[in-house]
Amino acid sequence: MKRRDLLKTMGAAVGASLGAESLLAQETTTPTSESVGVLVDTTRCIGCGTCEMVCAETHRDAGLALPDDVDLSVERTTSDSQWTVLNRYETDKGAVFRKTQCMHCLQPACSTACLTRAMHKTPAGPVSWDGDKCMGCRFCMLSCPFDVPKFEYDSPVPRIQKCTMCWERVAEGGTPACVENCPADALTFGPRSQLLEEARHRVYTDPDNYVHHVYGEYEAGGTGYLYLAGVPFEQLGMRGDVGTASFPALTREFLYGVPVVLTLVPPFLVALNRAFKGDSHAEGDSRKEAEQ
C-alpha cells in the first residue's frame, strides 16, 4: 500500500470517529424543564380502552389498526400496529389498569444509538422517528430499556413504529389524542415540571391512596411519561431495575463503539480496497512495460 493511500485511510478513520463522538454529544443533551409530558394516574383508569381506540384512529395513516378481541387476562406489548396498549393487572388492591406506550425518555437511548438521527428527541420533548433518515439498523430497538420501538418485519417497506406523543398535534398547540379523549381524566398533558408538581400534590393530599413515588421522575434518567399508582409499580409490570441514570450514560462506551464501528469500518475497507487496487494496477502497468 502506498503511504499516501494509508494516510487517506487514517484520515477517514479519524473523521468517522470524531463524527460519532459529536453525534453522541448532541443526542445526550437533556431537554429543558419545560419539555412536555403525560401524567398517567392508574388509580383513575377505568380500563375502557379509549386510549387504544383513538390512538389507532388518529394514526391510521401510519398503519395502526383498531384492537380486535382484546383479552385483558393476557399482558400485551406495543406492536408495529399498536402504539399504545392497555393491560389489566391483579394486584394487592384488586384489578388495576395501566396504559403502555413509549416513555419518551429525557435522554433516550434509542436516539443516541441511532446512527442517522432518524430517531430523535424533538425540542418539545416527544421522541419521534424520521423514515427518510432511517437505515434499518434497529439499534433503537436493541437499546430501549422499555422494549418499545417495533419493526414492520412483514412490510416491503418496513418502518419503526412507536408512540410519538402526537408531536404534530403538540407542535400546533394541541394535546395527544389519548389525553384529549380519556373519559376518566386519568391522563394529563403539559410541561413536565408542572406534571411533577401535580403528581406530588395528589400524593400529598391523598397519601393513603398512592404509593409515595412518581414513576418516571428519575427512572432511566427521567421520562416524559410519568405514572402514579396505589400499589407498587412492579405489580403493574413496570421495571424496577432501570436505575436513575440515563441509559446513554450507562452505556456510553458501547454507544460510542456502535457508530464508530459502523461508520469507521466501511470507509476503512473502501480505502484499503482502493489502495490495493491502485497497487495492482501499478504492478500490471509495470509488467506490460517490461514485456514491451
Write the layout of secondary structure elements.
Blueprint: H1 3-27, E1 36-41, H2 50-58, E2 85-91, E3 94-100, H3 109-113, E4 119-121, E5 127-129, H4 139-143, E6 150-151, E7 160-161, H5 167-171, H6 177-181, E8 187-191, H7 192-205, E9 225-228, H8 247-250, H9 252-291
Parallel strand pairs: 1-9
Antiparallel strand pairs: 1-8, 2-3, 4-5, 6-7
Helix pairs in contact: 1-9
Provide the descriptors you would attach to this structure in a database record:
three-stranded mixed β-sheet, alpha+beta, 2 domains, 9 strands, disordered N terminus, 38% helix, 9 helices, Alpha-Beta Plaits, two-stranded antiparallel sheet, 292 residues
Report on the structure:
The protein is α+β, with helices and mostly antiparallel strands. The chain folds into two domains: 3-22 and 252-291; 29-245, 2-Layer Sandwich (Alpha-Beta Plaits), CATH 3.30.70.20. Helix content is 38%, strand content 13%. The chain is built from nine helices and nine strands. The chain has helices spanning 3-27, 50-58, 109-113, 139-143, 167-171, 177-181, 192-205, 247-250, 252-291; strands spanning 36-41, 85-91, 94-100, 119-121, 127-129, 150-151, 160-161, 187-191, 225-228. The strands form four sheets. It has a three-stranded mixed β-sheet. Strands 2-3 form a two-stranded antiparallel ribbon. α1 packs antiparallel against α9. It is globular.
